[in-house]
Amino acid sequence: MLSRWTDHTGKDHRVRDCFTRNQQLIDLTMQPDEIKETMDETIALSTVPKSNKQIGFHFLKFAGKYELVKIADYPNDFLSFLSAPY
Fold it and tell me: Among 32, 37, 41, 86, which is least packed, fewest CB within 10 Å?
């Protein structure tokens, strides 16, 4: 981990420093808190909840098309999670 190498531009690198930098970039648990907060805010602002209309009708149509008789008999068991926004 303490070994060094030189890239094609002549810049000297230490393996430990490169590993630490890559770990912060890739491992989501190692990212700084301000980056996590920025990402959470961006996701919250850019997501728009879908309004699912007539889910029951489309579900029963799907169940009928593929002859899913038992599933069509109990649609309420499936509609709760199918109608969830996310």
Answer: 86
